[in-house]
Specification:
seven-stranded mixed sheet, FAD/NAD(P)-binding domain, globular, 532 residues, 3 domains, 18% strand, alpha/beta
């Protein structure tokens, strides 16, 4: 059964979704699976947003995902996959228990292992006198994580205020930064660096990052740092296929939405650059919320919505995607884990030098090796090939100005940053790696903006400062009764956040009280035995 024909009125659906990033595609898949007629419109030629994969040579690279949380069978990812009947086709494998993240600083290296007690004890041995502070630190992070995952994504601020005991840690620390907590606990700079070493998952140093976002990041990965057992390529292709197979559903690629038609407080239809008109009962917007008003001719959003649109964007990434030949990455210290490389101590100063001063001569790096994570290596690399993906943060404005004014200068700058990254890898990790490169692709902030419609090349939507992670942030509400936001800025970023956002949005749209209860149940932490 296809979409209902509307003649000049256009195609008709139950739901029209603008954008096929994680929020749009995952929510659309749930709605389609429940029998709704759904149309997803995507400006790119691949679905998935930052989760899409692209091919260079014989390699399939995932654009933006590196490792994930909240995806195991007893978490939201398992709930999502069971709802679609995909739990046997898409699985996630935990990364190495003893070192899923290796943090490297000039004077020390630390392997983040599973279990907050195990990490607290290991760090207390390395930093004598900090044992009590570390115990309090991890206890607070665990409490914030548990409360955050009991709260529906769309829960308004007044609902938190009505439950001051249930959400007491979230309420108390809604304006706290990670750095403020560490200062209060009296941690030395080296310990602060180790505890903040995964901050690239947030894109902010400890002085600016929301303690709530930091807690979710640290504890969620502790509970389940994992990787798709086969590959991101297989995972997204299978979810997109499950959506397309549902009667009356369409995934239209290279179909940019240019206009929304509204009547009072409702959206009536949308129009694409190709002239396609789509009418629906409800609309979901998976684009950046700041882009929404421009789609409505002559529209001025109400003050409350403009105020919520006042967020700053998260950092922009510069990523090297490398296909390597004739190299054993395990022999150079890589494996089923990530490596975070920092050229100096004091992460606030490191971030400031790189993002404010625009000095990338000694960049900090997040290094992943996808072919050492995925079991189906042949899906993402040719025989004998290896993947290494390296990410760092750069300022968007300078790259954008260069590209607009002098494209040759822009490509010279890309090469300069690429060389700085490769110099670090050759010096610190894999001597002579340049001679092993078979495929090399560099993605800059302007690449992100072009392919993923990410304003300022942002990686995570709204910046995860206390102001933008606070309990009164934008969430899914818009000035239109039948238009809901489903992107990273209205929930949590990443695949684990995407699972959560999609399930919560679906439960709210359909009134699925059983699903809401499942999402807000009290979680049990794994690895609670001391030293486990």
């Amino acid at each position: 059964m296809g979409p209902r024909a509307g003649g000049r009125a256009g195609e008709r659906y139950d739901y029209a979704i603008i954008g096929s990033g994680l929020g749009g595609l995952l929510t659309g898949a749930l709605l389609a699976n429940a029998g709704a007629r759904v149309c997803i419109l995507e400006r790119h030629y691949h679905p998935g947003g930052y989760a899409h994969s692209f091919k260079r040579g014989g390699y399939w690279f995932c654009a933006g995902l590196h490792y994930v949380f909240n995806s195991l069978p007893d978490e939201d990812g398992g709930l999502f996959l069971r709802a679609l009947g995909l739990e046997d086709e898409i699985r996630f494998s935990p990364m190495a228990d003893e070192s899923f993240d290796i943090l490297r600083f000039p004077s020390l290296a630390y392997s983040v292992r599973r279990g907050i007690h195990a990490n607290a004890e290991a760090l207390a041995r390395r930093f004598p006198g900090c044992e009590d502070g570390l115990r309090r630190y991890y206890a607070l992070l665990a409490a914030l994580y548990l409360e955050a995952f009991q709260a529906p994504v769309s829960l308004p601020l007044r609902a938190f205020a009505r439950h001051p005991l249930r959400y007491r840690h979230l309420l108390r620390h809604r304006n706290t930064t990670t750095g403020e907590l560490m200062t209060r606990l009296g941690f030395p700079v080296e310990l602060r660096d180790v505890l903040s070493g995964q901050c690239g998952n947030i894109g902010l140093p400890p002085s600016r990052s929301s303690l709530i976002a930091h807690a979710i990041n640290v504890i969620a990965y502790d509970q389940g740092a994992c990787y798709p057992t086969r590959s991101y390529f297989h995972m997204m292709r299978r979810i997109a296929r499950a959506f397309r197979e549902r009667p009356g559903c369409r995934l239209r690629l290279k179909e940019a939405v240019t206009r929304l038609e509204v009547a009072r407080d409702r959206v009536i239809a949308l129009t694409t650059a190709r002239g396609r008109r789509v009418v629906a009962d409800r609309f979901l917007f998976n684009g950046d919320p700041k882009l929404l008003p421009a789609l409505i001719e002559g529209y001025r959003a109400p003050r409350w919505f403009r105020r919520k649109l006042g967020y700053e964007y998260s950092a922009a990434s510069f990523t090297l995607y490398m296909g390597l030949r004739d190299v054993d990455l395990r022999a150079h210290g890589f494996g089923n884990w990530n490596v975070w490389h920092y050229p100096d101590h004091d992460l606030d100063a490191v971030y400031r030098r790189q993002l404010v001063d625009q000095d990338l001569s000694r960049p900090f790096l997040a290094i992943t090796t996808p072919t050492l994570h995925a079991s189906a290596r042949a899906e993402i690399a040719p025989a004998g090939g290896e993947q290494m993906v390296i990410c760092t943060w750069v300022g968007y404005e300078r790259m954008a100005r260069l590209r607009a004014r002098d494209e040759a200068a822009y490509y010279r700058e890309k090469q300069r940053v690429t060389d700085a990254i490769l110099d670090t890898i050759e010096r610190e990790y894999v001597p002579g790696i340049r001679a092993r490169i078979e495929v090399l692709e560099a993605g800059s902030p302007t690449t992100n903006a072009f392919y993923c419609a990410a304003p300022a090349g942002n990686s995570y939507g709204a910046s995860m400062t206390p102001a933008h992670v606070n309990l009164g942030t934008i969430r899914g509400q818009t000035p239109f009764r039948n238009l809901t936001l489903v992107g990273a800025s209205s929930g949590m970023p990443g695949l684990g956040g995407g699972f959560r956002n999609a399930l919560s949005t679906y439960a709210e749209l359909t009134g699925d009280d059983a699903l809401t209860a499942a999402l807000t149940r009290r979680r049990a932490l794994r690895y609670l035995e001391r030293g486990a």
